[in-house]
Amino acid sequence: MNATNSYMKTIALLSLLAFSMGTTSAQSIEQTLTKMGITLFTPAKPMANYVKAVRTGNLLFLAGHVCTRADGSGITGKLGQDLTIEQGYEAARVATISLLSTLKAELGNLDRVKRIVKVTGFVNSTPDFGDQPKVVNGCSDLLVATFGERGKHARSAVGMGALPSNYAVEIELVVEVD
């Protein structure tokens, strides 16, 4: 078994463990995140003329979030050239933590999420790189581990020739809320 398959199997097992921890009705979503070692942060203000989230009816559309951490550091580079699938997976996970931070800021409580409806993942990659779905699994696995059945979603994972500031991944969400 090669290192990539071993890594992916380890991530899948961790996701299943986190999923099983997060499905009890007495446990809040934030408690689930804490048990997974994830800390949400106050999102930075948009740097251009847009907002990070727009609600219409019971749907919340989250703008694309790149893979930046609470301290402002980010994961940059191109998949298939500078970064491995595992590093891309982590970049998608980091972008998802940023999205969850914005979601909490918008809703006040992540338990108000009824369902993750759609994930769109953009992967900064070379023309011959074809594993965008494996990279965006970093987002999908975290959402299912966090929200259980409510985290299962429709998804697109597409390759891009470039992303802003050479970030490795950008992800958008559509979320159904109460």
UniProtKB/TrEMBL annotation:
Keywords: Signal
SUPFAM superfamilies listed in its UniProt record: YjgF-like
Signal peptide: 1-26
Domain Endoribonuclease L-PSP/chorismate mutase-like positions: 33-173
InterPro entries: Endoribo_LPSP/chorism_mut-like (IPR013813), RutC-like_sf (IPR035959)
Record-linked PANTHER family: ENDORIBONUCLEASE L-PSP_CHORISMATE MUTASE-LIKE DOMAIN-CONTAINING PROTEIN (PTHR43760:SF1), ENDORIBONUCLEASE-RELATED (PTHR43760)
This protein's name: Endoribonuclease L-PSP
